[in-house]
Amino acid sequence: MIGSVGVIFGETGSHTYRFAVTDPADVKRTDYVKVWHPTDGWVLGQILTMTRSAGNDNKDRLVATVSVIGARDNSGLLRSPKTPFRPGDKVYIAEEDVIVDTLGLSEGGAYLGVLDGTDIPVTVDRNKLIQKHCSILAMTGSGKSYTAAVIMEEMMEREVPLLIIDPHGEYATLKEPNDDPDMDALSEKFDIEPYGYDNVYIYTPGNKKVCEYADRTLRLNGLNLKPKEIIEYVPSELNNTEIGLIYEAVNALKHDNINYTIKDVLVEIGSSHSNTKWGVYNKLEPLLDSEFLSDKPTPLVELFTRGRTSIIDMKGIHPEVQQTIVSKLLSNLFEARKAGLVPPGMVVVEEAHNFCPEKGFSKTTCSDVLRAIASEGRKFGLGLLIISQRPAKVDKNVLSQCNTQIIMRVTNPNDIRAITKSLEGISTELEEEIKRLPPGVAMLVSPDIPRAVMVQVRARKSKHGGASKEISEDIEPEEVDYEDEEEEIEEPARPSVGGSIFRKIFGRG
């Protein structure tokens, strides 16, 4: 054990104390320190703040304020000292074994990285991640998608089924090994090797033109839909008259005893003499455009099975249609899990503020099912990993159900407030720490660990696909010859109500 780094002075308590730092080079903010207590033995603490003040001799004095973590008793329970520390007690840097034992850092779980400023591995229990849900909250550029991919890698290595809602196509590179130029150094630091995961399949709800790298198309059942199901698929709100037309059309098709599609429903609505049919046409048009409804839907047992990761790549899909797809897909998955038709696993929702927004910001068709999974999913072994750069805009009921929270740099006051409301016992010092976190460092709040810890997230084994695109300064603007070039400007055609969808159904405008 190295010599002391300071001496406790002034008023002390069982939860905090201050000490005068002997040598500023020996300690820094967030370091773990220990003090010998006559009753409890070595007690672990963490430096929260460091300030300079003038001593009695008018010389500068560096003062560290420590938050007491505690010590393990004979039963292994973590306890704070029952009596205060004594002024004059010496403070020492805590060794790794003291930190590991006191914080209860165990091995064998999902490996997230190392305790910031140390080489101590930090893992979390995979079962608790699934059963009790997880959130990753950070402002853009702080590393939230990178950290999410680290968790995905840990799940894939235990063959946990994953269904990833990927609005921007960030996770397709899970298939490719990490090609970072610094990978040799990262491999040594985190004891990992580059690896591309084989059992990853990319689905697009559109077609291969929309997502050229997709492995398959995602299709949901579009055959013989009940009126209620059709209404659930419509991204915009229908009035009572429009709903009535849909019911009439479906009942007529059922009476004919034939299999029918959305297109058949629209043809039937077209026979109505009501002008309301044009409003229904326009509201159902996105369903025909998106192509995700089919008489040959993608089986859930294909999407969600042990050892398989399915990425639903939403690139190129209209936001309202994305919400409709997610709503139906997750509703079907949740019901299948309740019935035991698919194994336990995890759903990953990127840009969660767009799919389960807080009341008052907006309303989406998939909010209800995400709230249901958040509140009931643990009973059925269906976990959520929620990712967002706007915590204040995420449904607070969903956020509060995430027992594991990984928080990276956040500076927006509203987002900070949303985070502190979803966490119990977060201090003002930790709030300030969130604003200062460097990229790649996260505050981990986990039921496995008695207090929030700072973690340097490990390097990915797979290639990172979520980096911001850089605008090259080397690109020369394309030269355009405008010389003597005149173009006749045509008068724009008058729009015809329902024209485009009319052509899709009947082949004429």
From TrEMBL:
Stretch list, region Disordered: 463-494
* Record InterPro entries: HerA-like, HerA_barrel_dom, HerA_central, P-loop_NTPase
Q: Which Pfam families match?
A: DUF87 (PF01935), HAS-barrel (PF09378)
Q: Cite the Helicase HerA central domain residue spans from the record.
A: 112-332
Q: SUPFAM superfamilies in the record, alphabetically?
A: P-loop containing nucleoside triphosphate hydrolases (SSF52540)
Q: Which reaction does it catalyse?
A: ATP + H2O = ADP + phosphate + H(+); Couples ATP hydrolysis with the unwinding of duplex DNA by translocating in the 3'-5' direction
Q: Name one GO molecular function term.
A: 3'-5' DNA helicase activity
Q: Where along the chain is composition biased (Acidic residues)? A: 473-490
- Report the family membership: Belongs to the HerA family.
Q: What name appears for this protein in its UniProt entry?
A: Uncharacterized protein
What species was this sequence derived from?
Methanocella paludicola (strain DSM 17711 / JCM 13418 / NBRC 101707 / SANAE)
Organism lineage reads as: Archaea, Methanobacteriati, Methanobacteriota, Stenosarchaea group, Methanomicrobia
